[in-house]
């Protein structure tokens, strides 16, 4: 018997399947993806509108809150609100005055009721820079870290009809004492003008006297009073 001859042919390799073609998403999947994208865009648009409406509501509320304030004061307070800067407060909102003293304290403070109290000097600098950039007017700021308390000396006046130093007659948060002391620490409240004239003789310089009716007397002897009317030009 003849031996079998080995085949010289190379062993066959397993066939490699052709690369699969990328599958195309079904039309339904494409529609769902587009719908999801549209829903997200709509949600984002709604959030943007809601943010804009909230901002408009805030500005409208601020506009109402500071009606009657000087332009610069109003702009400074609105800037602080929109920038999230805490600690901005008007002098008019930090004091609580008994009803019978409201006229006297209002006259004593005058336009300073619209001074803006801030926590730090830097707050005042930033607000002033914003007012300059926008051409929005001027305001006076009272930084708590630099304001001087004023003279703490008591008025040595022993006359009937003298009610006392203004700072002792009103209520306020102790946090704001430096400001209140600076503004009203040298203001004496009296019942009327005859009392003011008597007290004037016993006071040293630097004092201001105000009556319950709203007359004002300086330590130099000047007297201001009369009736409140709307001033008009001639």
Automatic annotation (TrEMBL):
Residues 85-200 form the SMC hinge domain. GO terms for molecular function: ATP binding. Residues 1-38 are annotated as: Disordered. Residues 14-25 have a biased composition (Pro residues). Gene3D superfamilies: 1.20.1060.20, 3.30.70.1620. One of its GO terms (cellular component) is chromosome. SMART domains: SMC_hinge. PANTHER family: STRUCTURAL MAINTENANCE OF CHROMOSOMES PROTEIN 3. This is Chromosome segregation protein SMC. It comes from Kouleothrix aurantiaca. The lineage of its organism: Bacteria, Bacillati, Chloroflexota, Chloroflexia, Chloroflexales.
């Amino acid at each position: 018997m003849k031996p079998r001859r080995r085949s010289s042919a190379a062993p066959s390799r397993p066939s490699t399947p052709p690369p699969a073609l990328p599958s195309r998403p079904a039309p339904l999947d494409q529609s769902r993806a587009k719908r999801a994208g549209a829903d997200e865009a709509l949600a984002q648009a709604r959030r943007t509108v809601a943010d804009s409406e909230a901002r408009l509501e805030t500005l409208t509320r601020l506009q109402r809150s500071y009606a009657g304030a000087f332009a610069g004061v109003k702009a400074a307070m609105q800037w602080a609100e929109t920038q999230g800067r805490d600690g901005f407060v008007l002098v008019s909102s930090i004091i609580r005055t008994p009803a019978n003293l409201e006229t006297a304290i209002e006259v004593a403070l005058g336009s300073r009721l619209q001074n803006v109290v801030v926590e730090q000097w830097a707050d005042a600098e930033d607000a002033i820079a914003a007012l300059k950039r926008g051409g929005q007017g001027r305001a006076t700021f009272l930084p708590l870290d630099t304001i001087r308390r004023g003279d703490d000396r008591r008025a040595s006046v022993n006359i009937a009809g003298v009610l006392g130093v203004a700072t002792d007659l009103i209520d306020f948060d102790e946090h704001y004492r430096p400001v209140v002391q600076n503004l009203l620490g040298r203001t004496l409240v009296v019942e009327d003008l005859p009392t003011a004239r008597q007290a004037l003789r016993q006071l040293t310089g630097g004092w201001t006297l105000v009556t319950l009716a709203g007359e004002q007397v300086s330590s130099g002897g000047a007297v201001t009073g009369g009736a409140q009317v709307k001033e008009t030009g001639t």
